[in-house]
Amino acid sequence: MMGDDTPDVNKVETEDDYIHVRFRNPDRFKEIRTPDWAKNPAESVSEGAEVRMGQEEGSDDWMVQSVLIKKRVGEDKAEEQAREIVEKIESQ
To answer: Domain residues for 16?
Structure first.
């Protein structure tokens, strides 16, 4: 069972070289970034993965909006890896 704070996967779609595993709707956020510090936990799970973090209006907190996993991984495994990455980042 996943922790209370870990969001569920909202959508999985393949675009170009990446599988986008979306956890939160991008419309929720005033700003979305791909921070460098998130690269280590992402790469420790899946080589070449990237994490997009969003910040809501009026908040200082950043949350995972989506995780990009290299397409060669395949959608099922990408979803699994993305969950693992989110757990690492949001449990820090």
So the answer is: 11-90
Q: Is residue 67 part of a domain?
A: yes
Number of domains in the chain: 1
Is 1 inside a domain boundary?
no
Q: Tens-digit pLDDT profile for the chain (92 aa)?
A: 344 466 889 999 999 999 999 999 999 999 999 999 999 999 999 999 999 999 999 999 999 999 999 999 999 999 999 999 999 998 86
State how far the Cα of 2 lies from the Cα of 14, in Å rounded to an integer.
24
Contact between 7 and 24 under an 8 Å Cβ cutoff? The reply is yes
DSSP 92: -
In a domain, 73, yes or no: yes
